[in-house]
Amino acid sequence: MLTKSKKEKIIKDLEDAANKSESLVFINFHGMNVADETELRRQLRKEGVGYKVSRKTLLRKALEGKATGEIPELPGEVAIAYLSADKAGSKDPIAPVREIYNFQKSRKGLLNILGGIFEGKFTTGAFMMELATIPSKEVLLSKLAYLLRSPMQRLAIALNEVSKKK
After folding, report:
1. Residue 85 has what pLDDT?
2. Could you tell me the pLDDT band of residue 15, with boundaries at 50, 70 and 90?
3. What pLDDT shows up at residue 86?
4. Is the per-residue pLDDT at 89 higher than 80?
């Protein structure tokens, strides 16, 4: 059983995580074994994403007033993934949900995204899933560069073919 002081410390840690991160994801991890959880934590740590398991009542107390709207329904065992305070600003704000989504794809049925906090608002699991499928900034920039290069490349090929015929 948790003592009052331990509960207060857990709430303070959760509040710090919520205050210092741009986005936060609520995850249901029911049925996950220790090996999978260890692998998940390792992958998240590599990307600078924090991960905490918490009781729902303590999580609700920690998140009161941290975002607008209502906290989504949190069934089952709940954990949060967030951008670590030391990595905030250097990473993109959807990294936590993207990493959870990638892990979820590789291990079907282990994780379920329940919702989260994005840009100061509580969001649903469906919205967080949409965010997870957005490519990273680097990928989007490379796609843009390819799209800009493609017409110029086609023009160069066409001009080269015209010059060969003359």
Report:
1. 61
2. confident
3. 61
4. no
As a whole number of angstroms, the distance between CA 10 and CA 24 comes to 16
Whose structure tokens read 């469906």? 126
pLDDT confidence band for 142 (50 / 70 / 90): very high
Report d(CA 131, CA 135) in Å as an integer: 9
Q: What is the DSSP string of the chain?
A: ---HHHHHHHHHHHHHHHHH-SEEEEEE-TT--HHHHHHHHHHHHHTTEEEEEE-HHHHHHHHTTTSBS-PPP--SSEEEEEE-TTTTTTS-TTHHHHHHHHHHHHSTTT-EEEEEEETTEEEEHHHHHHHHTSPPHHHHHHHHHHHHHHHHHHHHHHHHHHHHH-
Q: What angle do CA 26, 20, 25 make, to 5 degrees?
A: 10
For residue 24, give both structure tokens: 């936060």
| CA pair distance 142, 104, nearest whole angstrom | 26
* Chain mean position to CA 128: 8
pLDDT of residue 149: 87
